[in-house]
Amino acid sequence: MTQAPAEQLILVRRQPPLAVVSLNRPGVLNALSLPLMRALADAVGELDRDDEVRAIVLTGNGRAFAAGADIAEMSSAGAVEMMARDQFTQWQRLRQTAKPLIAAVGGHALGGGCELAMLCDMIVAGEDARFGQPEVRLGVMPGAGGTQLLTRALGKWQAMELVLTGRTLTAREMYERGLVTRVVPQGLHLDEALRLAREIAAQPPVAVRLAKESVQKAFMGTLEEGLPLERKNFYLLFATEDQREGMRAFLEKRTPVWQGK
User: Fold this and answer.
1) What is d(CA 204, CA 195) in angstroms, rounded to the nearest whole number?
2) Which CATH code of 3.60.21.10, 3.30.300.20, 3.90.226.10, 3.20.20.10 fits the domain covering 6-201?
3) Residue 86's pLDDT is what?
């Protein structure tokens, strides 16, 4: 299967305090090849280190967010070869993103595409979006977090149905089940994701980062693990200039000016 040069597999548009990262293999519905995932992890990592960027929007290009993994890459591989590729290293790099990461989903978000959307902190979906984990229909199963994230988001019984049947759900159905943050008319998913990103980017950056870390711990861990982290992060924020500015501004009835310190 032919693909674009590595530098074109994704497109990055910086609009400080925001950045938009677009998957760019529209001819194959943005299939998540190994080179694409490496390029994506590199780009998001660079934006995560950029002090001018406070929120990142991840979207597709063309008719899909991402229709899944690149099946042509995997169809003839054996178990040892798949392990040697260590493809999930790039996914772990993306999970370590400290800044808010918002998925803007239009069209198909299936298999790895659904897992990539779930890896983000929020999902804004157009009415045309479709989510699912159809891997079982190919003789495999989700491997980039699908079984774990769907179970946490939807509960065991609904996750079992999706994973074991491979059926897809609409954006509205996923919203009703709690996976999708917002549903908007077809074609407006990126605009709405940018509006949400701007709202978040207007908040004090250090507080946003530590709050995200605390919510992630609640989602992936236990209450016993999450409460101490929440308290620690709460106390840490009292060492920031933004905390002093925010509380002074509240008392003085004015708009705060955040420094990110």
Assistant:
1) 17
2) 3.90.226.10
3) 73
Q: Is 78 exposed, middle or buried (0-12, 13-18, 19+ CB in 10 A)?
A: exposed
Residues assigned a catalytic role: 69, 112, 115, 135
Of the candidates 200, 191, 192, the residue with the CA atom closest to the CA atom of residue 53: 200
pLDDT at 162: 96
Q: Which of 61, 193, 65, 191 is nearest to 128 (CA)?
A: 65
pLDDT number for residue 87: 77
Please report, for residues 141, 176, 224, 248, the alpha-carbon distance to residue 252 in angstroms, rounded to integers and kept in the order given.
56, 41, 38, 6
Low-confidence ranges of the chain (pLDDT < 50): 1-6
Task: Look at residue 194 in the predicted model and tell me its pLDDT.
Answer: 98
pTM: 0.91
CATH number of 205-252: 1.10.12.10
